[in-house]
Amino acid sequence: MTTVGISRAALVLLLTALIAVPMVLPKLGSSFWIDIVAEILIWSLLAASVNLLLGYVGLLSFGQALYFGVGMYGAALSVIHWGAGFWGGLAIGIIAAMAMAAIAGSVAVRLTWHYFAIITVVFSLILYFAAMSSKPLTGGDDGISFSAPNVLAFGNTRLSLADQSVQYYTILLVVALCYLLFSLVVRSPLGVRFMAVRENDRRAALVGINVYLTRYTAFVLAGALAGASGALFAFFGRYASASYMFYHVSGEAVVWAIVGGAGSLLGPLFGTGLLIVFREIISTFWEHYLFAVGAITVLVVMFAPRGLAGAWNDLLQLVTRSGASASAPTSSPATDPGLAKPAADTTSGG
Amino acid sequence: MRDGGENVVALSVEGLTRRFGGLVAVDGVSFDLPTRRLNAIIGPNGAGKTTLFNLISGEIRADAGRVRVHGQDISGLKPHQIVRRGVSRTLQIKSVFSGLTVAENVRTAVMAHEGLASPFRPAASYGAVNRRVEELVAQVGLTPHLDTRASALSYGDIALLEIALALANEPKLLLLDEPVCGMGPQETEQTVLKIREIAKTVDVVLIEHDMEVVFAIADEIIVMAQGAILARGTPAEISSSPEVQEAYLGAPEEED
Questions:
Q1: What pTM value is reported for the model?
Q2: Which of A199, A202, A204 sits opposite B98 (nearest CB)?
C-alpha cells in the first residue's frame, strides 16, 4: 500500500469515527464526551486558522482569537438583535471576522516575523479592551447569552441545536466543509502562491507574485476560519464573551497548530484533540496541568519539529519503504557537501 | 519586439542614482544596451553592480533616473510588476523555493506568469501549465530531477533551476547576477553553455567576477567602479584598457 493509500484509508476511518461518535459514546455511558469531541472540532478551526498563516504562508499570528471573538459576536448579536437562524448567524459571524481581518490585515501583512507577530497581538489587545469596555453591546467579561435557534425548520420538522446529536452533526458538517475548502485552496494556484511566499518571498516577487496581496488574501481567509470557529462556539455555548478575544486564546491555538504540525491540513485537528482531551482528563485532578502542556509542546518542538503530522508521515515512509521491495528514495542527497546551498539569500553589494 | 533588428535598445538606463547614507552606490549611471548581444557588467567589489540590478528589478527604489526595457518605462514599478513586463533576474546567492520540488518550483513561476490565482481548481490539473513546466525543466536539463526537492539538488543544479524560474515569464531581458559564483569548473562549464544558448533568444545582461567567463562569452563589457561607468567596449578593448587595469590591479583597496 502506498503512503497516499494509507492516508486515504486513515481519512475515511477518521470520518467514520467522527460520524459514529453520537451513536457509540452514549453506549459507553459517556454522553459528556460527545460535547468534548464537538468542542475539539470547533477549536480545531482556530488552530487551522493559525496553520493557514504559519504553515502555508509563513506568518506567525498571535492574534487569531480576535477573529474568533468577532465571529462569536457576529453570530450572537445577529441572533439576538436580528433574529437570525443558525445559518444566517454563522454567515454573519464569518463575514464579520473576514471584515475585521481585512482591516487589520491591510496593516499587519506589511510586516513579517516578529513584527507581524507583535502587531497581531496589539490588534487583538486593542479590540479585546474595546469589547470589554463596551458592556451594553458585548456584555464584557460576562458576555451575552441567547437561546439556540433552529438549524432547520421544515414544515413540522424542526432540527434544533438543543438536541445534542443535531448539534454535533451540524458542527461536524460545518467543520468538514471548512476543511474541504481549506484543502481545495491549498492545492489550487492560490495555494501555490501561498507556498511560494512561505518558501522565499524575495524569489516569489521575482517570479511575478504580488507578495503583499498573497499574504493579505491568506490573512482574510484565516480570519474566515477563525470566524467560523468563533461562530460555531457561540452556538455551542449559546453565548459570546469578550474574554475569548484575549491573546491567551490565540496562544493556545498556536500551540495546538504546532503540536499537530503546521503545514499539514489535518495536523492541527489532532493537536487540538490531543491537548483538549489531555486537559479534560488531567485537569480533573491536577489544576496545574498547563505545566504538562508546556512540557509536551517543548518535547514536540525538539523531537518532532513538524508535529504529530510530521511524525505520522515519517512513520508512513518507514512502513511503506520497509514494506516495498526496493523502491528508491525520491530525493538524492547533494552530490557535493562542500557546495551546500547557503541558508538565506541576502542582498550583497557587488 | 524582436523584429526591430540591431538598432533596438534592450535596456536603457538614464541617470540612475542611489545613495545609501553618505555613500553613492550608483551615481548617475546612463547606458543603452543593444538587443541580441550578451552584455556583461564587471567591476571590483563595491562598484555598485548588484545595486544597479536591484534598481532595475525594482527591489530598491532609485533616488533619480529612469529605466526602459525595449522602450517601455519600468521606473518606479514594484518587482512583481517588472517581472510581468518581461524582466527576470537571478541572484548572486542562488534563490529558489527550497522546500518544493523542481516541478513545483517551475510550476509556481509559470502560474505566476499566467496570472493564475484560482482558489479552487487543483494546481496540478492545468494541462498547458504542466507542459510548459516540462519544457522549461528540459530546457535547463533538469528533467531527471523533476520530483527532487530543490534543497536536495547540487549547487550547480540549483543555479539551473533558478534560471528556469527566470525563464518562466518568457523574458525580454534576463539579468544574471554572478551566475557561476561558487561553482566548480564542471558546473561553471555547464552553466556557461546554458547561458550562451539562452542568449540566442533572450537579451542577457550578466554581472560576473570570473574574468575568464566574462571574456569568453560577453559581446560587450561595461566596467563599473565606485558607482559609475569606468569603461565600455569589447572584451579585447577592455582587457587592454589601462584604466581598467588600474581599477582591478593598481588602485589601492577601497573601503566600502
A1: 0.88
A2: A199
